[in-house]
């Protein structure tokens, strides 16, 4: 099988060193789980393991270094380019684990790589408090039965999961659902199962939907100061359907501008698509579903978009470390939506959200943590130059002149002549005069010092 790069949930070890294995066991169990591939060096080359007996002895020795012991998932022999290796799957643990020397480790990012980082005292207390709150996702939902899950949604997930894993599965649908924690061993739907696959999850978890509201101004209410909104939509159903419905409405409500390059016009939406979708998916993945009485909210204002998720930041995550660290309140939901294709790469979404906003000329996202909610704010304060509604009847030379001004701030007659060397100066002068008469450009200066800017 082709090897994926190391990540927050994947690590390679060339030698079966019990100390290194123990560090990975602790880090994965404390974070979101993961897979240790033994017998492969960090560059992806096979390291020539002695055999499964040596591996098993090293893993057993590593387990004795963990306090309390880490429960391992299944072992798997895998074929890698140039040899055979072994993968150990480590599930996330509801307990807090430490090494025999007292270190509490988490899997995290370090620049472009990944490390098992020791936690400080306050971080350990925060993580311990999160662990002690219980594993809500795996709890059976009172009154829910297997027939309350939607077979079509399950089939869609299994198809996407197979594509993501790049291998076929011999398991039955119910065996997969048990493996991912959607069903208990007795076949009763869990909270994660109902949220991901339920025909009507809100029957059992009423607050699990999403509300979209668009306000005409920059504050809640109508433009005249009265209570009101321009549009309100509510989305229910399994989480995949909630995400898609909310995304389509949010996308449709964005204003659209355009940039003309040569003869081509490119539409520019109010916010970068990835940034909006990432904020939406994160809210659905990481909200605290134990908090009742409030749904996820998307509030669209004239100057910003707010995505509000009930529940504060999980575990040891803060606004200061949110880019470099990763910890899921709902790891089964995160993994389910990752296998479904709604999450591209675990732990990298915040980075790209910031990059896309800044690259589009917006301020970076603002994060507002509160004890019982977390808000992502995207501002549309890009330095947007006006795009005329009559652009479709503009000649190609004028479109190039406008693009030049957008890129450089101004244009002079000589600049325009350089853009259009085969056109007479008089024709170019008339082009610019036409743009001035239409109210788009402003003429500044006189004679040889004349130049034009966007009005």
Q: Which short descriptors sum up this protein?
A:
21% strand; 33% helix; 455 residues; 13 helices; globular; Heat Shock Protein 90; six-stranded mixed beta sheet; four-stranded mixed beta sheet; 19 strands; alpha+beta; Methyltransferase, Cobalt-precorrin-4 Transmethylase, Domain 2
Task: Give a description of the structure.
The chain is α+β, with helices and mostly antiparallel strands and 455 residues long. The chain has four domains: 10-131, Methyltransferase, Cobalt-precorrin-4 Transmethylase, Domain 2; 138-201, no CATH class; 210-379, 2-Layer Sandwich (Heat Shock Protein 90); 395-454, Winged helix-like DNA-binding domain superfamily/Winged helix DNA-binding domain (Arc Repressor Mutant, subunit A, Orthogonal Bundle), CATH 1.10.10.10. 33% of the residues lie in helices and 21% in strands. The chain is built from 13 helices and 19 strands. The strands form six sheets. Strands 10-9-13-14-16-15 form a six-stranded mixed beta sheet, covered by helices on one side. Strand 1, helix 1 (18-30) and strand 2 form a beta-alpha-beta unit. Helix 1 (18-30) crosses helix 2, helix 7 (239-253) packs antiparallel against helix 8 and helix 8 runs antiparallel to helix 10 (349-359). The longest helix has 15 residues, at 151-165. The chain is globular and about 85 Å long. 32% of the residues are buried.
